């Protein structure tokens, strides 16, 4: 859940394929809030954030971006849970929202858990990038 300056809270679902407009709005809001916390007044912060996002759109438009979470932990248990839910019919996009990871991270978790189970649980687990 994300706290916004007006006190509302909402889940950020960009990782599940929301519209670009939604992502651009979220990115602009994140930058604006961060700038305000650094002492820049609201109107200036929003203008700077909008300019930065527009510059990124012009220079990187059309590219797929991935922002790794950088949590370097063993996700074997989480991967097993994801795999169990997936095999019971959960949709990948729902799992991505539930576990707050990208769609690709869910696919990787399913793949790694399937490989681990096929190898009798002794496979080398390199799931730290999820």
From TrEMBL:
Annotated SUPFAM superfamilies: Homeodomain-like
Record's InterPro entries? c-mor_Regulatory_Protein (IPR052411), Homeodomain-like_sf (IPR009057), Mor_transcription_activator (IPR014875)
Superkingdom of origin: Bacteria
Ranges of residues in domain Mor transcription activator: 24-117
Q: What is the name of the protein in this document?
A: Mor transcription activator domain-containing protein
**Species for this entry:** Salmonella enterica subsp. diarizonae serovar Rough:r:z
Top-level taxonomy: Bacteria, Pseudomonadati, Pseudomonadota, Gammaproteobacteria, Enterobacterales
């Amino acid at each position: 859940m994300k706290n916004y300056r007006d006190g509302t809270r909402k889940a950020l679902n960009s990782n599940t394929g929301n519209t670009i407009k939604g992502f651009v709005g979220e990115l602009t809001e994140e930058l604006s809030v961060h700038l305000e916390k650094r002492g820049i007044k609201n109107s200036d912060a929003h203008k700077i954030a909008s300019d930065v996002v527009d510059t990124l759109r012009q220079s990187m438009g059309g590219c797929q971006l991935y922002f790794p979470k950088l949590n370097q932990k063993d996700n074997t248990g989480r991967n097993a849970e994801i795999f169990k839910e997936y095999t019971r019919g959960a949709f990948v996009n729902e799992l991505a929202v539930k576990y707050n990871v990208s769609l690709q991270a869910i696919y990787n978790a399913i793949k790694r858990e399937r490989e681990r189970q096929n190898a009798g649980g002794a496979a080398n687990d390199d799931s730290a990038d999820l």
